[in-house]
Amino acid sequence: MNPILEHMSGLHTLTDDVIAMDLLINAKSGVRNYAMAVTECATPEIKQILMRQLDEAIVSHEKISNYMVQQGLYHPYHIPEQIQLDLQNIQTAMNILP
Fold it and tell me: Distance of CA 46 to CAs 32, 36, 57, 58, Å?
């Protein structure tokens, strides 16, 4: 989006937030999917490969969530703060809609 339009619409700060949260949600989904796949695999070789992928997915999730906490984009240990942040994001999204 054009930087001027981003600033006028309030999206200049929302963009990074949305990208980071989307990445975190996908990382969580990946961890869940790998964990489920490990319990369903048929051979020890495949299980070992999936477990390595699961470990890497967990590390990625941790890096993403740590980044978001450091940037003030995610408050997993302070629920009232996270709720307030979510409400602000909802209000911003509502202001964008026609």
Answer: 17, 13, 16, 18
